[in-house]
Design a protein that fits this description.
The complex is a heterotrimer of chains A (356), B (365) and C (367).
Chain A (H helix, E strand, L loop, with lengths): L7 E6 L6 H4 L5 H9 L33 H10 L3 E6 L11 H20 L5 E6 L5 H11 L5 E9 L10 H9 L4 E7 L14 H21 L2 H4 L5 E4 L6 H15 L10 H8 E4 L9 H11 L5 E2 L21 H15 L9
Parallel strand pairs in A: 1-2, 2-3, 3-4, 4-5, 5-6, 6-7, 7-8
Helix pairs in contact in A: 4-5, 5-6
Chain B lengths: L17 E6 L14 H10 L37 H9 L4 E6 L11 H20 L5 E6 L5 H11 L5 E9 L10 H9 L4 E7 L14 H21 L2 H4 L5 E4 L6 H15 L10 H7 L1 E4 L10 H10 L4 E2 L22 H15 L4
Parallel strand pairs in B: 1-2, 2-3, 3-4, 4-5, 5-6, 6-7, 7-8
Helix pairs in contact in B: 4-5
Chain C lengths: L19 E6 L14 H10 L37 H9 L4 E6 L11 H20 L5 E6 L5 H11 L5 E9 L10 H9 L4 E7 L14 H21 L2 H4 L5 E4 L5 H16 L10 H8 E4 L10 H10 L4 E2 L22 H15 L4
Parallel strand pairs in C: 1-2, 2-3, 3-4, 4-5, 5-6, 6-7, 7-8
Classes of the chains: A alpha/beta (356), B alpha/beta (365), C alpha/beta (367).
Amino acid sequence: MTVLPSGAIDCDIHPGVPEIKQLLRYMEPFWQESFVARGLDGFDMMSYPPNAPITCRPDWRRKGQRPGSSLADMRRDALDAFGINLAICNPLTGGQIAVSETMGAAICSAVNDWIIEHWLNQDSRLRASIVVPAQAPYLAVEEIERRASDRRFVQILMPVACEMMLGRSYYWPIYEAAVKHDLPIGLHAGSMYRYAPTSTGWPSHYVQDYVANSNIFEDQLLSLVSNGIFVKYPSLRVVLLESGVSWLPGFLWRAIKTWRGVRAEVPWVKQSPADTIRENVRLTVQPIDAPPDPNTIERLMQMIDSDRMLLFASDYPHWQFEGDKVLPDGLSPALRQRIRIDNPLETYPRLKETVQ
Amino acid sequence: MNAPVTTLDPQPDQSLGIIDCDIHPYPKAGALNQYLPERWRNHVFHYGKFNCGIYADRGTYPRFSPNTSRRDAWPPGGGAPGSDVAFIREQLLDPYNIAYGVLEPLLGGNTSRNQDEAAALCSAMNDWQAHEFVDPEPRLRASILVPQDDPAASVKEIDKRAGDWRFAQIQLGSKTSEPLGRRRYWPIFAAAQANGLSIGLHIGGTQSSAPSAGGWPQFYLEDHHVLVHSMQNQAASLILEGVFEAFPRLKVCLIEGGFAWAPPWAWRLDAHWAKMRDEVPGVKRPPSEYMRTNLWFATQPVEEPEHPDDLRRIFEWIGWDRMIYSSDYPHWDFDDPHLAFRFQMTAAEKRMLFHDNALSVYTFR
Amino acid sequence: MNAPVNALDHSAPAGQANGIIDCDIHPFPRPGAIEQYLPERWRRHVAEYGKFTYGMYAAIGAYPRFQPYLSRRDSFPPNGGAPGSDVAFIREQLLDRYNIAYGVLEPLLGGNASRNLDEAAALCSAMNDWQASEFADPEPRLRASILVPQDDPEAAVKEIDKRAGDWRFCQIQLGSKTTEPIGRRRYWPIYAAAQANGLSIGLHVGGTFSTAPSAGGWPQFYVEEHHGLVHSMQNQCASMIFEGVFEAFPKLKIVLIEGGFAWAPTLGWRLDAHWAKMRDEVPQVKRPPSEYMRTNLWWATQPVEEPEHPEDLRQVFDWIGWDRMVYSSDYPHWDFDDPHQAFHFQMTETEKRQVFRDNALSVYTFR
């Protein structure tokens, strides 16, 4: 096994959220009673069926245990294995996609309490995103306000497909709270499934749903740019988590070209979308959908044409790479340094407060 | 705007002429009605083309220029861009030495939720293309429009037109009620393969859910890009549902959806199929391999990377044998064959792009 | 809560000759029961990918329910297992207690809900085997429904033809939510097979939720969604009528189950009124829509409507037609309708016989 230089900052790691019954203790009496009396549990997202191959790399799966639910395993399999000094936990929970605003908020808030007690308090390397009910921006803002003073929370987490396109004014209160507290918005692969998962309807297979995620990231970037979100909130940072990365250059080329042709419709977008995106948007590197060929990777990096955008991530315990190949071959040493350490530190200002 | 990188030799000889696989004809006022039976003329008059959109008589996303067209494409004799054969000759076929131009009507014939209406409209539009464009101008060739959500009617229409020299392919839209690889559409692929006809998958069509999994974009800037995704999703669907295993000789040309997305999409499909191939046992080879055997890419709107040589790299990653020139005449983002490609090509490469690849896909008789 | 309005004659001996018919009973599997009937290939697939539905959750529906298993709290079998999983307890709590001659099983297990059509076909087949072996065989008063993967009409027809001659099955089951309105021509092979085999179709609320529950979007609460299901039933009625299903298949019989019925007369009037103006759009509809409601549709009574003035319920029965109403209990669900107590108005003996027995006999295939 390669000995990896230590110090990497993992920007996308997934502690396994437990069942509702373990979260009840963090909830108000109304919700405790509701979940128990109504017999409600099993809120795993369709975006990550618990036994689907991608949800957990086979060698990280433990019989009878929810993927990623053991801190001891995470330490051994990821934090120590990949030389990680800091890791940002992005819990994926059904609360983020619930049809009820208040039920979603109750679950999200409980998950945030749980992350503090069972993860952040247990290992000083861990940081977390604030899980918010994006179904209801006003409740999301309440949750952000509730957590912001704990400096171990470094990001606000939402699924990449919600009730409306994310540039819409409906979501502006969340962005206001984000810039107020200098917290990036993390958009993670996954969907509320309010609409068909692809622009052509409902595919027959989970693998098709999964690969279609990269399209949604593109759509949301265009929505944020077209709606002038980065004009309104110039300091806002948006991080794309588990997007696939290699779609980026072709998307930027096209975004520039189309904007040149039709910019009169969006006169508040005064600079090329590619410039805005390079300034304000970051992407985690797992998965990086490309053949494991250093020449291709190198070419891809050239086409992306920015060494600031990529963030180291293992995506543990999702299955994206084999062995300890978190970063593909073909990256220059300078770029590796930026990806592993410098870019995450620049993207998440709060990390600098506590780096050893 | 585009620095000219002259690529072509302007000799008017059909053996050296280029092939344009995307031209948009438009009807003169009332032209289509002549080809519709009375019963349907009345129906369309009362109920319109009853599609999945929000407006009675226009698409959901307002376009950016009148008729989506170049401002100089309005025929001097009157009528909409693409409605006048003489002007098409003058502005397109003759100056660019076009040997064959494939008509791709974007008239929503197949978008009606009323399947009988869709069948009637498609049939009328097929008659109209053949009669008013191909007959007077044999360099133009028609596409067989079909009501894809009614496979039986579609197969009937395909079988009816397949022997007619005036038709060069079957046309489908990139937006369909379900992803095109779903088995309900397979009779169409069977008929295409049986008749040796390729399918042109053009962006647009019928939209039965939101354009994005994230909902409804607001601006044309967004909507324009979402169409690219529909092309990607259809490619994924055709591959992962096993269409190219079931119909190995099927040829599908993806038109007006761009192509720079194709290599990363191939890598993405391969990577995740490798882990989850047990979900899709109908897929026997890595997805990217089907992209190299059964898919072609029309070049318009050509990608414009910040570094022009990146475009050559994209061509190489996709495969030079997969690329087919298209103009999209008369639309505003028309690609002039002399100017559109901002990197140098060899003579052999030009020949493939502008001529030979199309000949290996389309049915020109 | 319900003032007893004694509807049934308790004195007659139990037996199929004079017992009542219950058109809606929900069986539930013991853990691992369905898997036994699945081929290995599908057992593995379901374990890895689940029932790949149109929903947002991997293993549950979008709208959390209100009771564990949606069931009465007293219906958990004393020997363990979920409500509806224990035949002996079903006998005790339902069949014997209410003198049920025939009870129609309506599994709500999402067999047909997978977007992977081959998975749906495999699950439906397994669930059909399970119903027949574990319910109808040991307890012949219980009769199974043929579950089919409706979005794959060829596979659906195959499954119908396979079960049609089996006495343990008494109808075909479909859901009120389908990926397209159920009158659309893609589903017609199923109707053809139903009619050819002389089998009725039970259209039960629920099914494949491929778009927002409302044309206005996504409700938040169970109290909203519960009513949305009623609309799905109305939409399916309208679809079948306007697409001309009952002209193409005049002998087809459809029972609408658990969608309520007070809406039926007003829907009939509404369809008639607007069809009269726009019938040229739908030339396949040769008679006023409400007429098809009187020849091809039946309504199961649960959850019975409870008008503020009980006599209004009688008026609704009159408007729909007494020959159209079939009793259902929805056992073991929380809003179970006790046949003795559910109807708050007096019925004549003839009316009772129609509602509790004769109408069902004219629709279902009990052999």
